[in-house]
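[Target chain]
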Amino acid sequence: MNEVIVRDPLWDTIRLDRIAVRIVDAPAFQRLRHIKQLGHAHLVYPGATHTRFDHALGVYHLARRALDLLGRQGDLQAVNELDIRLIPLAGLLHDIGHYPFSHALEELQPARIPEHHEALASRFFADAEVGAALREVAADAASRVEQLIRGEAGGPLGGLVSGSLDLDKIEYLKRDAHFCGVPYGQVDVDRLLHALTLVSDPDSGQPELAVREKGVAALESLLFSKYQMFRNVYWHHAVRAATVLYKRIVADAMDGNLIEIDDLIGETDEGVMFRVSERARTSQTDVGVRVRSWIDDLRARRLPKRAGEIVAADLEDGQVARWIEEDAAIKRRVEDRIAADFGLGPGNVFLDYPEKSAMFSLDLLVQRRDGSVFRLGPTGRAGLIGLPSIADELYRSARVLRLFTHGVRRVVTQDELSRLVSMDESQLEHRLATANPLLTGVLQS
């Protein structure tokens, strides 16, 4: 068996080589069929039921296309043959460690979720079938693929797997937009792939992936597509409402000893929900009662409601205290105090301020038409391109700080919410020690 052909609604024909087929057939990889790419976004966009499995095949496909184009240009002549073989496999395996419902659980504090999915990849490479397939390529293939996924491999091709222009981002934007039925994620994939090249870094002299100047317009479209998808899909208020409720279910289940971290690793979406639900239903504790009630609400799409929100662009630099961006203990105390002020039970108020600044950052080489090379980094390049500063503004426009309430709807003014989130921890401790409410809010039917 040389190749297997998979029909894909986005890329039409995906050809899997023999090693890729062995990996895909492994149970550890088949699990990705049961992890939705966009978590709970299907509660807003009904078509968003595509999976990490679909996406992984797409990244593998794009990696092979990119390597084919680079090879035709003669850019791969000095690249190690093993590195070339491992790039598509790294693309295929980059999400194998994902938690159920994708990225949501990675927002919990490290005490609960100590590792992100990239760091978990090595556990799955230890799977007998995946490991055997990789060893057929090279004895150290698993460790090399893991380094590529974590962005630690170095080498000229690492940027295809982890970087500002990695194929993962290109693939998920196209796929997510397609299945959500929205026009925002349109990326000129062909232009970007044809603009890729290998050049010498002007500072280090080492070969590195770059984009030719002719591809800058396509790079701009990628950036704006990302902004539109975060604003309208990934950070849609109802998607975030479902996400914070799911996070609270898992966090309380862990705090109440209903599940442990190992119950989440290697589990599927429905698998983890079933496990938590069954243990909550047999629990006689208050935590068990709350958790099973929240699970019923999530399954029935009875989601928390917006009580207030502020776009990050409307907040002054440094105005938001660090505790609001973390899943810290004091944040939970603040939420539960607001819940009590609003006449709600514990766990029915959520402060949400999603953070993905790295997704908008740029750090890559650009080759100008005259052959000169410069690095497009945080400061951009005066007189030529301002994408990094534009990226920062787009991030601040897409990011929204929200207060959600579950059970009853309250309306909180921006000024009141802004004053709360600007308090540092010492100020909060003082307020929590008094009987004065943190927020008043107006009850709304």
